[in-house]
Structure formats: structure tokens, C-alpha cells
């Protein structure tokens, strides 16, 4: 295991820990940090191999290992806020270290990112009792098509920069301010070093292999899920099944947003997040 991760902290008050998504880094949170640090201690941390932690490596590069490393690095209780892959990491931290997580917020995230044409037998068994018909369980799972992730794997072997640029375009797809969103995201992440091909491959694999669907009901702390209605990576059709898996959680959908509502709908994002934080603080 590598040494502790580097993180940034700004402001005072209740602690908020922000975790970025695949291929990017903590720079994406800069506008959010500036706004929220007026009332909160805002902590941003890069995943191993990204941003300020570009030299940090772990083996295996797994959700459990990453979550342990972040939990070991940040020694104060906090509300964990994760975007996309970062939401998956934040959820794993909430499951494994509930004493350190005062609340959980996921942004444009899913407990299972990959689309599945049929629900696996093990998933049905875990969500079906003897007196409950299996017809009540979902027959498919909406997410990223496997061939899309496979294409990213192949592109990484040819041109890392082109692959990341393509991913930025997908994240903003559908947003009414798509060009502005892509430019802002690109400008924010270029403040830090780019990740290696190995790190990108390992972290991309998490989107294919990790599945927390059967564990969502074990999250006991306040839980907010934020979505973009036009998101192509976490489609709107996935929201209702997640509601069923996490019935005690709150959720909000930004009507004209895509995969990065904290960029395209910044003021509304801050409003919805702070309203929830105030209600559960």
C-alpha cells in the first residue's frame, strides 16, 4: 500500500470531502470550493494516480483499496461527495467506514455503471424473498453500453489525450452549454499532471467490474443522489431502479443537465446541495 494521499483543504465548518470522476482530477471542484468554503471546510482529494497523487500507486487498483486509502488519509468525520466514479468510491467508503461518514452525496453516479441486458441470478436471489415473485425484480439494468467502455480501452492504447477529450464531450453531451462546459472542464483539469495510461486503464476497469447494487440498502447515513436528466452515462431510466435499491435516500434531477451538473448548472447545484446539507447538518 502506498503512503497517505495528498489532499487540499479550504475554509472552516462542517467537513465536506469531494472525490472526482474517471480520467479527471480534483481541479474540477475549484468553483465549488470557492463557493462552499465560505461556510464549510471543503476537502478535495485526488484518486491514486491522478492530480496531486499522480505518483501514488496501489495494487490491486480496486474500489476497496482506494476507499481504505482515502479513509486512512482523511482522519476527520465528514460528508463525502463523489461525482461519477467518485460517487462509487464515496459509497464504498460509506459502507466500509460508516463511523467516518456523516452523510453521502453522489453526483451523476450509479452503483453499477455498465449496462446489463439481463439481471444476474445472484442479484435476483439477493433481492427476492421466497414469497416475492421474481417478476418484481428488474429484468435489465440501464448504464454505459459495454462497447463504449471497450472503445475507450482501445483508444487509450493509441492516444491518451484524444481519449480524454472524447470522454469530456460525452460528459457534456446534451447540455445546452456543451462547448462552454467542455472548455471549463478541460481548463480546470489541466492545472494538474495527466494520469498515466496504466492508471487510466485500471480505473476505467472499475466502471466495468464494480457493482454495489445489493449493498445500497446498507447505507444508513443521510444519502442524496443528484442526476442530470440528459446524462448519457447514467441515463434517466436508471434512477427509478436505484430509488428501489436505496428507498431512504433523497434524489434530485437537474432537468437540462448532462453528466456534470456542477459545471453546467452551477448555481442550482450549489442551491440543492446546500439546502440538503442544511437540512441534515
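Q: What amino acid sequence fits the structure above?
A:
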Amino acid at each position: 500500500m502506498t503512503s497517505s494521499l495528498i489532499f487540499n483543504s479550504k475554509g472552516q465548518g462542517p467537513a465536506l470531502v469531494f472525490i472526482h470522476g474517471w480520467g479527471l482530477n480534483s481541479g474540477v471542484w475549484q468553483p465549488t470550493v470557492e463557493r462552499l468554503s465560505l461556510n464549510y471546510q471543503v476537502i478535495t482529494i485526488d484518486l491514486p494516480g491522478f492530480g496531486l497523487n499522480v505518483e501514488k500507486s496501489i495494487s490491486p487498483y480496486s474500489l476497496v483499496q482506494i476507499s481504505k486509502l482515502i479513509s486512512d488519509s482523511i482522519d476527520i468525520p465528514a460528508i463525502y461527495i463523489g461525482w461519477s466514479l467518485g460517487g462509487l468510491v464515496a459509497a464504498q467508503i460509506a459502507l466500509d467506514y460508516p463511523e467516518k461518514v456523516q452523510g453521502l452525496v453522489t453526483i451523476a453516479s450509479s452503483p453499477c455503471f455498465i449496462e446489463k441486458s439481463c439481471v444476474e441470478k445472484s442479484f435476483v436471489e439477493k433481492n427476492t424473498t421466497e414469497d416475492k415473485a421474481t417478476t418484481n425484480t428488474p429484468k435489465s439494468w440501464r448504464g454505459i453500453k459495454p462497447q463504449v467502455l471497450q472503445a475507450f480501452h482501445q483508444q487509450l492504447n493509441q492516444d491518451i489525450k484524444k481519449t480524454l477529450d472524447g470522454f469530456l464531450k460525452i460528459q457534456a453531451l446534451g447540455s445546452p452549454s456543451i462547448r462552454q462546459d467542455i472548455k471549463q472542464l478541460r481548463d480546470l483539469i489541466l492545472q494538474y499532471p495527466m494520469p498515466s495510461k496504466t492508471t487510466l486503464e485500471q480505473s476505467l476497469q472499475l466502471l466495468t467490474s464494480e457493482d454495489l447494487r445489493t449493498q445500497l440498502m446498507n447505507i444508513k447515513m443521510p444519502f442524496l443522489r443528484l442526476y442530470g436528466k440528459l446524462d448519457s452515462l447514467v441515463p434517466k431510466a436508471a434512477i427509478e431502479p436505484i430509488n428501489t435499491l436505496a428507498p431512504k435516500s433523497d434524489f434530485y434531477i437537474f432537468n437540462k443537465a448532462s453528466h456534470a451538473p456542477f459545471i453546467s448548472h452551477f448555481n442550482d447545484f450549489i442551491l440543492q446541495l446546500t439546502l440538503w446539507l442544511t437540512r441534515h447538518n
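Q: And what stands out in the fold?
A: The radius of gyration is 18 Å.
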